[in-house]
Amino acid sequence: MGAALARAAQWTAAGSGTGTLEITPLNESLLNQIIKFVDDFSTRHPQEAVFVFREPLEWKTQLDCSVFGEGYEINGATVQSEAKGKDGQPLLLLTASTLRVRSFDQLSCFLQIAMEKRLKEAQACLEANRDPIVKILGPEYGTVEGGDMSMLHLLDKVKKNDDPETETRMKISRRLHQLDLQLLNSSLKQISQDVRLNPAGINNEVNLLKNFSGKGEDTVLESLEYTSDYTFSNGCRAPPWRQVHGEICYLVIKPHDTDPLYITCSTAGVFLNGVSNNKGFHGVIHIFITFQVEHITTVAYINSNGIQFVLFESAKKPTHEKNYQCMEAVDAKVSGQSQNLYDFTEKSVCEKVKSSAARRRSIDKKKLEPSMKTKGETSSYSTWLSSEILCHRRVEAIGLCRFEEVSESSSETEEDEEQPVRHQEGNTDLPSEYWGIQKLAKYLKGGNPTATVIALCSMRDFNLAQETCQLAIRDIGCLEVLINLLDTEEIKCQIGSLKILKEISQNTLIRHAIADLGGLQIMVKILDSPDKDLKCLAAETIANVARFKQARRTVRQHGGIKRLVGLLDCISVGSTSLTPYQAKDTEIARCGALALWSCSKSIKNKEAIRKAGGIPLLARWLKCSHANILTPVVGTLQECASEPSYRLAIRTEGMIENLVKNLSSEHEELQMHCASAIFKCAEDKETRDLVRQHGGLQPLSVLLGNAENKKLLAAVTGAIWKCAISGENVSRFREYKVVEALVELLTDQPEEVLVNIVGALGECCQEPINRTIIRKCGGIPPLVKLLTGTDQALLVNVTKAVGACATEPENMMIIDRLDGVRLLWSLLKNPNPDVQASAAWAICPCIQNAKDAGEMVRSFVGGLELIVNLLKSKNKEVLASVCAAITNIAKDEENLAVITDHGVVPLLSELANTNNDKLRRHLAEAISHCCMWGSNRVAFGETKAVAPLVRYLKSNDPSVHRATAQALYQLSEDPSNCITMHENGVVKLLLAMVGSTDETLQEAAAGCIANIRRLALATEKAKYG
């Protein structure tokens, strides 16, 4: 168990103190397995269960004395078990909130008492006892990396100490070791599912390996080449028809010591061609490896015989020097190859950075004092401020960014990525503010610290929110000086500079310029400053600048996320009346939350926030009543809620209750972010139930009345949509008149709102009464009108809503009159598979409830051919929905004849070899109904559809059994099909289903067996007379 906790469990440390277990699906799985192990221990191993631990497991419990009953002695705030050890001490002792347990038996009983809090208790126990085996068995059994845990090692201990207690310890150790292996295996399976390669990552590895390839003795490979020089827009080199299977590119690797290796790189891994079951490619995927021990980075080539060649080793240095060292090490290995212009430029930059860094180190020793500077010293201050640092930082920022952009995967995708707006340059008609700032610039650049502070104060008197002033600061070179001021030791200069940067960084161009000049790196360092005002300003400025991808990456790579999370950790959380000291702490936390909010738009930053321990701190701040900090906290949470690990944490940390509570806030922005967080989290059923239990459905219903605020309306309707997935919530929404309110909002709304409204109506149609309400409120005409739209997400939802409404005959009459079925049919031509599938599902109830369905379907010119051709789709959902539609179409004999002529039989037969139960069910139903025409039964047999259908009977889905039995019954009318079924063992499978409680399944199974038996009797009669 110690190895699993050390290697597999995900730990974090927030602020200071020991690590805590993160709230992640992997950790939850590990905890549940440990709980099950302890639960079963007493019954499965009674002798070991009474063994008394060497030291008690001790932790802080959330349970109080009142939960303990029989078998325990309660005395005030103290509880002790009646069971005692040989020393007379109780095996369980609770004093205040500290719990001590000394046996598995008592541990099992305690977990039963804890009930729904058992997960939290198990987490607290393991956090307080990082290696519980030491406490249970003693230090000699502790988890040691690389230690001998074999059975021979344990048996050796028994021989040395031949007594019953040692034997018991050995048994417990063995069982705990088995648990360890079980936990490690399960975690490995879960982690391996998330590992995926991408074109950028593979390309980086290949380019780096090429630097170590060639004919020389100091190379590790003779050659490494792609099989294709053409690169598609997505970075792949594999042809499109192989990309759909996840393949990225193909490589030919020629080592010095073996024959050429032909490699396929795909999203699932790297594979050696011609080797089955992935055996034999171990040496290929480990051909290049980078690892760090202490601060030494080693890059080595490894093949199946072990390490063959160490490429280079380097000690860890400051970031800018470390990265360039790696580049130079790579370049040093490339011989006989011409360098391109980019390589030459980067090498020149390296040299400049090193010389500039050397000069700066000598200058840094002469930091200026705030007063008593001579004219010469002032000139030195000015020169250093405006040129030396700037030159060094600009070169460092450009070089570092270029190198790291090559090494970092481009998997981050942000929808909100901003592009800097380019304005027309020119000096015509510039306002007086522009020239006023230009006059101040000379004092800012050439003055002593006192003059600099005065110039900064004077600059703040201008309207810095005005774009003219912002661009003036950039154009006349003040922006570089402001950033350089951040790197001084003058607190007043730093504060003045940050106040200006905070204001002007609202401008997109300024944000990009600050990032390009290396300003973010300095602001991240300032977060460690003891000055609280300085930290606040730095965090707020980071919040403004980190609104685009490069800036967010810079903050993460320079340790900014961990520092920003640290700003949330203060003692004033939840306080209602704040002292001035606590108020300042709260302000620091607010600024930190603002910066995290901006940074959280990046997938990698979300993960970094979680690993830095941000979730529990955000949960704590969510309980406070100050809207100014609640808004960025909830904003960060709703941004991160797109990740499953955050949704799990929001649910388990009790945040749903606070989100629901803040839906009734007076601040619309806070309401919007709370509703948006619920929108994303309500994908999970447990969260939907919690929203209902905490009374969140009614405030959501009330907020529908605020139709003017479109952003709030989009978030609220989204939350209602997801909550309505649960039937219990739909009933509550009906009580609050939500359906009527949603129908009223169907017109004159932006598409992002309409998508959610229509999605909510589609879910509410689960109840027949709501379908009637939609009709009576006049909701069907606007829904049908939306079928003519172009937004893909809206079309998916509106087809579902129209299809749900069509299950009522009265609604179907209105849909048919408005030409809704024709519009649905036309959507089958949409290139989006989701729209195709949703339209096909909606067509099914339309055909079922139309008065003259056969004639209606025939009236669509080319409609039957279109739906038959969709059987060639590769999307399983499209195939299942089209099969369901064909089932309904085939109920009309004339339509069945038409689709038969269009080749429906061979197309259905081609789909028979599938493992998808949903497709199996609807495919079997379609085959069953298509057998009713002409020689289709014989045709299905000839196209080899019968044998795969027999295998469907082994499915675990009863609906698949019913549909398959009906199809087999129809097919068994043909003697050849009976023979095929019998050869594939259908009789034994059907006999078991004759006793089913499902009458339809009974009759179909019995009928099929009867047809097979009649054929057998006829054959015997013909053979023997």
TrEMBL record:
Q: Which domain of life is it from?
A: Eukaryota
Against PANTHER family, the record matches this protein to: ARMADILLO REPEAT-CONTAINING PROTEIN 4 ARMC4, OUTER DYNEIN ARM-DOCKING COMPLEX SUBUNIT 2
Region listing for Disordered, in residue ranges:
406-430
What is this protein's name? Armadillo repeat-containing protein 4
Q: Which InterPro entries match?
A: ARM-like, ARM-type_fold, Armadillo
Q: Where are the ARM repeats?
A: 518-560, 862-904
- List the SMART domains hit by this protein, alphabetically: ARM
